[in-house]
């Protein structure tokens, strides 16, 4: 609680109450004394999706007793009546604690420079002694939900080792995959319908090939493009969040696989081949399509070498002959971002560029004040990180 007071209030300023969203009343900040606190920092642009994602976390920690608390700390440069109305509307949707304080925050420099708050929501996990156990657990929650509780760095390391990363991408997005240890899965998608159609036909031909049947090799096709756009969007948000939890561990095979997948987000096509929930390889649309179309060259070796070894060997050979530039866009980076990221294909350092984007979208809105701030949110520029590597020299990739 003392750390919270030092972070928020100036020495001579009145220490205001915090709002209890469960009782809709103001309470003294002593309710945070000797508690594990999840400090949620965000602007008033926090999305309904982000709020909804935290509801199960709130419900889960209630069952753990009285030792865990969530506190929303809105970051506003200068309060006015319109912003206060928006704030009141947002806090009414939150069952947890909310900082009810319209004066400047004392520790704003620490929040922006040390905690690396950059407009996107940031969730800092702090123990009763004020020690930070995770400088941003928001991406961890995005990937694993309540399975990541209590959202410490040590828990993140444990769950990453214990969980198959591909399985975590399908949690809570209504895609049910029954992983079977000896079954192969080809999960695929892409931006181009023609590629999806062509790849589906080639993959089905492989699935039904006599050599596959004779060796009792079981293949299951999972087409992400068949899902609703909102499901596809959630899938890619999870991929990005998983990468953000892993990107500091650059030498890890999982990090490289996830980075590859994220770099294919806007490509015509991509595919992941797994054995059970173990990832065999992640491939670009060009290389996996060629692998499928050339199955006649390698499928005869399945009897001797097995499906896994045969497809890995052929795909690996194709990767060496098809030159594909790697590029990576990170839209939701919060917290500290590494000074550099290595290319997942050639291990060269990817060059960093800045891109600006404006979509001019209109969304359905019901509240006049929320409409105004949402309009600002949609029409103002944002700055994602863009990285590119040609595997010869790093270049800017034009989207």
Describe the structure in brief.
Residues 230-360 form the Sieve element occlusion C-terminal domain. Helix 5 crosses helix 10 (229-246) and helix 12 (285-293) packs across helix 15 (307-321).
Please give the CATH class of the largest domain: Alpha Beta
Q: What structural class should be given to the helix and strand makeup?
A: alpha+beta
What's the assembly state of these chains?
Answer: single chain
The shape is elongated
Describe this structure in words.
Residues 230-360 form the Sieve element occlusion C-terminal domain. It holds the Pfam family SEO_C. The protein has 399 residues and is of the alpha+beta class. It folds into three domains: 2-162, Glutaredoxin, CATH 3.40.30; 166-321, 3-Layer(aba) Sandwich (Glutaredoxin), CATH 3.40.30; 326-389, no CATH class. It contains 16 helices and 14 strands. The strands form three sheets. A seven-stranded mixed beta sheet has the order 2-1-5-4-3-6-7, covered by helices on one side. A four-stranded mixed beta sheet has the order 9-8-10-11, sandwiched between helices. A hairpin with a 4-residue loop joins strand 1 (18-20) and strand 2 (25-27). The radius of gyration is 24 Å and the shape is elongated.
């Amino acid at each position: 609680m003392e750390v919270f007071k030092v972070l928020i209030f100036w020495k001579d300023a009145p220490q205001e109450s915090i709002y209890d969203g469960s009782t809709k009343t103001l309470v003294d900040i002593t309710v945070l004394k000797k508690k594990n606190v999840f400090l949620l920092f965000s602007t008033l642009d926090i999305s309904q999706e982000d709020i909804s994602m935290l509801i199960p976390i709130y419900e889960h920690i209630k069952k753990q007793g009285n030792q865990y608390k969530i506190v929303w700390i809105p970051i506003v440069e200068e309060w006015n009546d319109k912003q206060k109305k928006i704030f009141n509307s947002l806090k009414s949707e939150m069952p947890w604690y909310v900082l009810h304080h319209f004066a400047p925050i004392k520790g704003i420099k620490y929040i922006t420079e040390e905690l690396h708050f950059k407009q996107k929501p940031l969730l800092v996990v702090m123990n009763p002694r004020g020690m930070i156990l995770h400088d941003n657990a928001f991406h961890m929650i995005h990937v694993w939900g309540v399975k990541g509780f209590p959202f410490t760095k040590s828990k993140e390391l444990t769950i990453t080792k214990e969980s198959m990363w591909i399985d975590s991408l399908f949690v809570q997005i209504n895609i049910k995959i029954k992983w079977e240890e000896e079954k192969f899965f080809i999960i695929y998608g892409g931006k181009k319908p023609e590629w999806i159609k062509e790849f589906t036909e080639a993959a089905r031909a492989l699935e039904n090939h006599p050599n596959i049947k004779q060796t009792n090799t079981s293949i299951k096709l999972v087409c992400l493009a068949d899902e609703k756009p909102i499901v596809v969007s959630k899938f890619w948000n999870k991929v990005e969040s998983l990468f953000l939890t892993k990107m500091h561990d650059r030498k890890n095979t999982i990090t490289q696989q996830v980075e590859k997948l994220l770099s294919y987000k806007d490509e015509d096509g991509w595919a992941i081949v797994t054995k059970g929930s173990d990832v065999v390889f992640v491939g670009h649309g060009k290389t996996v399509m060629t692998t499928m179309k050339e199955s006649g060259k390698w499928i005869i070796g399945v009897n001797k070498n097995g499906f896994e070894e045969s497809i890995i060997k052929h795909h690996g050979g194709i990767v060496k002959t098809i030159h594909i530039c790697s590029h990576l866009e990170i839209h939701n980076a919060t917290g500290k971002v590494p000074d550099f990221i290595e290319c997942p294909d050639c291990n060269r350092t990817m060059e960093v560029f800045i891109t600006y984007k404006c979509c001019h979208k209109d969304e359905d809105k019901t509240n006049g004040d929320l409409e105004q701030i949402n309009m600002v949110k949609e029409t103002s520029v944002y700055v994602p990180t863009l990285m590119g590597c040609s595997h010869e020299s790093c270049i800017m990739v034009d989207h």
